[in-house]
Amino acid sequence: MANKITSRSENYSEWYNDLVKAADLAEHSSVRGCMVIKPYGYAIWEKMQAQLDKMFKETGHQNAYFPLLIPKSFLSKEAQHVDGFAKECAVVTHHRLKNSPDGKGVIVDPEAKLEEELIIRPTSETIIWNTYRDWIQSYRDLPLLINQWANVMRWELRTRLFLRTAEFLWQEGHTAHATAEEAIAETKQMLEVYATFAEEFMAIPVIKGVKSENERFAGALDTYCIEAMMQDGKALQAGTSHFLGQNFAKAFDVMFSTKENKQEYVWATSWGVSTRLMGALVMTHSDDDGLVLPPALAPIQVVMVPIYKTDEEYDLIVGKLNDLASALKIAGVTVKVDSDRQKKPGWKFAEWELKGVPVRIALGPRDLEQGNIEMARRDTKEKASLPIEGIVDKIAREVLPSIQSNLHQRALEMRNSRTYRADTYAEFKEILEQKGGFILAHWDGTPETEQKIKEETKATIRCIPLDSPSESGTCIYTGKPSERRVLFAEAY
RNA sequence: CGGGGUGUAGCGCAGCCCGGUAGCGCGCUUCGUUCGGGACGAAGAGGUCGUAGGUUCGAAUCCUGCCACCCCGACCA
């Protein structure tokens, strides 16, 4: 094996790092905490972007772009917001370099100090709401539905490829509305968009819910989220949608005239998903042999490997594969014919498995004689010899959709088998220590109790699931009354 | 921010304890043979040993400072 991957059972975290590098998704850069997203990884991100962008536009949003740099004073206008982000901001203080006196390299020119420092955006609420003040005068300007694809920077003390990097790529939607009801509806709508995207395209089952006060976005009245379970039983927040109330409108003085010509503050939402979704994709489906990609997001859905000995055979077989590839492309399938003559078939099989290509086709003289072709599925590792006749249709209509739904099903079963109900604190702790996973339990609704549980067990409330039925019970920690179970887990 | 680790060829590492002018595997280049699960042979190319200073006739190796990155923990809207 050229690229050896630590097995999941041996060390899940090492497996993840090995896999991200071996599958050529990303690598560490020479900048602390910042990664280089490699072409294959970026291609997956582009597929995600394309789909999400389409869904945003279908729900009436437009893209725009705001500055990377935010004046320091903006950040402090919303008190909770600055509290949440102050500790992880990169700050621009100067605008010029000059040759150092000793002639070795350059230094920051002390004379080029900025009047006001600029913050590299950790998120764009402040710069955007400062801009919205000029864009919104009347109820006729509302709703304002904007999305931005951008990079942001949060000076994280501990980083991990895709899951938590100092700089990451994301989209952030920022909308403005005339009423609270409309803003709340928008918040929920975007949560649905994220959930649909996760389930149908990423094949990741998610739990929709509301964050507790402790976990809420800094400056939001409510944070809605989707939570997914990774293979090690830990939770990963896969997307958030915030109802911001009038907090930012008040901080940035964004008012509009109603039909009755009264001045009112605007209601806001923001919502985002990031390259962290790449980490979720890896940790939901992949195995010890490498990446496993859902067809909907695979940059290459079908790879074809020719088997041959002579030049004549090579020409014949690659020609045949090219024909099949053309037919598949017409059927809407993305294909690569791996016609590299330097690499042997065995090498290619291993390589494309590592990269998670959903379907692999191999064609050799033996198959050709019998009118057959070998097809292998990445999800189940099944290999089958099938008639060439009808193979295009079978792959496009049957196999790829089947892989997509199988991955989702498998992930759902994994999650279900590791979701528990706990009625006592002892039970709760035992599940966390011995099994890990999601725990549905009663909670008294106070931040203090949540904090205590977190300190003692590392588990936090991932969300209050939207679909959790009301059920009276008592808090596992304090014994106080509770009306519904909430979702606890250790989180990434 | 606390603890640990690592910086030597594109990548992964050995050499350091015990100082003598740098080596292995993969990859790369050329040629030939191979090709149904990570082929083989031959010939090549490639290194300011993180950095600054010190000790010494001589430093990748010993000493001191600095820098960077990684891992574990705390933190993480």
Describe what this molecule looks like in 3D.
This protein folds into 3 domains: 12-70 and 122-285, 2-Layer Sandwich (BirA Bifunctional Protein, domain 2); 295-402, Rossmann fold; 419-489, C-terminal domain of ProRS (Translation Initiation Factor IF3, 2-Layer Sandwich). The chain is built from 14 helices and 27 strands. The strands form 7 sheets. An 11-stranded mixed β-sheet has the order 3-9-10-16-13-12-11-24-27-23-22, with helices on both faces. It has a 5-stranded mixed β-sheet with strand order 18-17-19-20-21, sandwiched between helices. A 3-stranded antiparallel β-sheet has the order 4-8-5. A hairpin with a 6-residue loop joins strand 1 (26-28) and strand 2. The longest helix has 27 residues, at 391-417. The protein is globular and about 80 Å long. The model has no long low-confidence stretch (mean pLDDT 94). The structure holds one RNA strand of 77 nucleotides.
Poorly predicted runs are: none
CATH architecture of the largest domain: 2-Layer Sandwich
Q: What percentage of the residues does DSSP assign to strands (E)?
A: 25-35%
Overall 3D shape: globular
Count of strand segments: 27
The main β sheet shows up as: 11 strands, mixed
Q: What is the number of helical segments per DSSP (H or I, 4+ residues)? A: 14
> Tell me, what is the CATH class of the largest domain?
Alpha Beta
The name of the CATH superfamily of the largest domain reads Bira Bifunctional Protein, Domain 2
**Helix fraction?**
25-40%
Mean pLDDT metric: 94
Number of structural domains: 3
Radius of gyration over all CA atoms, rounded: 26 Å
Strand arrangement in the largest pleated sheet: 3-9-10-16-13-12-11-24-27-23-22
CATH fold topology of the largest domain: BirA Bifunctional Protein, domain 2
Q: State the end-to-end distance.
A: 30 Å
- Judged by helices, strands and strand pairing, the structural class is alpha+beta
